[in-house]
Structures are given as structure tokens and as C-alpha cells.
Amino acid sequence: MEVFSETSTTLPLFIDNINPPQLINAKWADRFITETLASIPDLERLYKSYPGYVLRGDLLRYLILWYYGGYYADVDVYPATSIKACPSMQNTIFNRNTTITNTKISLVVGIEIDEPFASTEKMRDWHWVRRYGFLQYTMYAPRRFSPLLREVIVRVLSHTKQHIAQSHIWGARYNEMTTLEITGPGVFTDAILDVLSETLPSDHRLIQKSVDADEELGDLVPSYSALPVQRVTWAPFYQLQETLCVDGGEAKSGKMLGGLCVLPLNAWGNGQRHSRAEGFNSRHACINHRFGGTWKPWRQSWRKWLFG
């Protein structure tokens, strides 16, 4: 199990896919970036440009899972059951003998926010940047070099470059919104949906469900176009009740998907007060997350101490 502390300056991670398993600190992380991944252009410069460890931690988790594979969880995540006994992963990722059944899956993700029709007031009250999104405080990569994680990494580096280029003379600054969008769940969600859109054929069930569900909502209009296109939106994952898997073999000829499984919200996102989440004692729960959000500046304000 890999864990990351959002507040510690030592970046403690425990990686079980490294032989022998070891607790990772900032020194190991720097060596991993500068030596193991030295061939990735601009990686070291951009990684060290981040003013906070939460930004480095976001990028680092993607890089480690891409390079080594394995399971990642923040340190405020507690197991409700073993990953191989997780109900949502039975008969989709693992069989009864806890053996991986689908070797064409390279990434397993969960859902954190599932409120596509949330009001502006609710968005403001919850400090949300998005109304829906995949979570990245827990991830599982059954095998190395997931094309999905590769796209996430490429986008994080690209967004970071753009943010630095647009910064003032005082250097790049990151607030809650930019952190979520540049390295956090915002870019993570976008990358996954876009890879699905670009690699799946137009008659695929996810694209057809997205098109059928749009009803002039505008979700089919991507950021790079003024016109709607056939693409995967949030529709197939809205109020998801069972694990949804798309294996690599479903991609168009010549396209590399890597395979993805999306777990229902209550597998990894239970315990919240939104998105129809169940409590920590949910029979669907595989992990429990305390949702401390200690990296957010507003969490440290006087409001926290008075109102929690």
C-alpha cells in the first residue's frame, strides 16, 4: 500500500512494488525524479518549481504508479477491507482466488463528486471547482505504464508550464483552485474522459450513452471546440451502481487505451455528505477517507476552529 501525507515535508510513501518494499521520503523522491525518470523532458525543473509538497505529491503519485504499478492511498485513508476483498472489485478485477481476472485493465479509479446538477450556491459552500470528478487520493494500477496515467502526467506538466508562463515576476502562485485543476482531480478527470473519447469507437456504449443523455446540456462541447462532438461525458458514471470496466481491446485500431475500471462512489468515496454517499459502515465500503483537506488554506482559518 502506498500512502502520502499532504502535510508532511518528508513525503512519506510506502511502495510495495519496489523490491524490497521501502518507506519513501523526499530524498528518495528527488532521486526518483532526477535519476530514474531523467529521460522525461523538463520533469525535474517543473517538479522542483512547485512551492508546496501537495503539488509535488500529486505529480509523484501519478509517476510512481505509472512506473511501478500498485496501489496508492493518502495517509488519511483507512482500509475497510483488503483491496482484493473489495466487493466492487470482485468478478471484475479479482476473482474469488484474488487473482487478477482482466489483464487488459491498467487503472482502477473511484468517484469522489457526483453532483452534475449542483447549484452555484452548493458549489460555493463546498468549495468545489467541479460538479463531478474521479478521486485520486486512492488509485490502483494493476500493471505498469498505464497509458491513462501517462496522459495525466503529460497534462500536469503541460498545465504547469502554462501556469508558470502566465505568472507575474513574483513567480507562479497556487491557490486552492489552481492546485485542484493543475495537478489534482480536475486534470485527472479531464485526462481520463478525453482518453476514452479519443480511443473508443463512435458506436461504443459509453459514447452513445453520453450522446443520448446530453439533451442540450452542452457536455458534448469540449474546451477545444465551439460545436458538440461525439465524446464520453460524465453521463455513463452518473449514479453508477456497479463497477464499469472498459478493457484495452475495446479501443479503436491503432489507439492505446490501457483499460479502465471505475468503481461506484461508495467503494472509495463513502462517508461524504453529498453525492448520495453512504456512511463509513456501508457494506460497499472498501476504504474510509477522513477528508481532512488539511492542505487547503481555508481549512486552517478561524472558521475551522469555530465551526469545524
C-alpha-based Rg, rounded: 19 Å
Task: State the share of residues found in helices, binned by percent.
Answer: 25-40%
The computed structural class is alpha+beta
List unreliable stretches of 5+ residues: 1-12
**Count of separate DSSP helical elements:** 10
Strand content: 5-15%
The count of strands amounts to 10
Strand arrangement in the largest pleated sheet = 1-4-7-6-9-8
| Major β-sheet profile | 6 strands, mixed
Distance between the termini: 30 Å
Categorize the overall geometry.
globular
Quick check: average pLDDT?
A: 86
Order of helices and strands: EEEHHHEEEHEHHHHEEHEH
In words, what does this structure look like?
The protein has 308 residues and is an alpha+beta fold. It is 33% helix and 14% strand. The chain contains ten helices and ten strands. The strands form three sheets. The chain has a six-stranded mixed beta sheet with strand order 1-4-7-6-9-8. A hairpin with a 6-residue loop joins strand 2 (13-15) and strand 3 (22-24). Helix 3 (53-68) runs antiparallel to helix 5. It is globular. The relative contact order is 0.15. Residues 1-12 have low confidence and may be disordered.
Detail the topology: elements first, then pairings.
Layout: E1 2-4, E2 13-15, E3 22-24, H1 26-36, H2 43-49, H3 53-68, E4 70-74, E5 77-79, E6 107-114, H4 120-126, E7 132-141, H5 147-165, H6 176-182, H7 185-199, H8 205-214, E8 244-246, E9 260-262, H9 265-268, E10 287-289, H10 302-307
